[in-house]
Amino acid sequence: MDAALKKYVGKAARAARRHRGLTQAEVARRAMLAEGVYGRIERGGMMPSLPTVLRLCRVLKLDANTLLGFTAPTPPPWFAPSRPPEEHTTVRAVIRTARRLGRRQLAALGTMARAMTQP
After folding, report:
1. Which residues, in sequence order, are CB contacts of 10 under 8 Å at separation 6+?
2. Residues in the chain with pLDDT values less than 50
């Protein structure tokens, strides 16, 4: 999700900057950023901090929800879960159960799990 979020924010910032007719240098200066830092943000190589997001929104005349992709009726593309929800739920249930086990039980569970994953 982190890489997808960085790319989404970068694309949104670039689109807003171009829409306003600004250069990267102008946005960086107005947002009190180094030009290279702003360039990395636009390329999706860096996630800006919250204070930086707010400064960028002010400079680009853009709502933070729009910059992060929350204005669409569906979840933003970066928000999609990386695994199917049922798998995620099952894994979490196993972890919760494993946390209640004693040391010997946990060792046995680990041995059993390794045996199950070998071809």
Report:
1. 41, 42, 43, 44, 45
2. none
Give the distance from CA 49 to its chain's centroid.
12
Q: What is the pTM of this model?
A: 0.65
pLDDT digits (tens, 9 = 90+) for 72-86: 778 787 776 666 666
Distance CA 24, CA 32 (A): 12
C-alpha 116/C-alpha 67 separation (Å) is 45
Structure tokens at 26: 């102008």
Is the CB of residue 88 less than 8 Å from the CB of residue 82? no
Q: What is the pLDDT of residues 2-15, one digit of tens each?
A: 888 999 999 999 99
**Are the C-beta atoms of 28 and 38 separated by less than 8 Å?**
yes
CB-CB contact of 28 with 37 (8 Å): yes
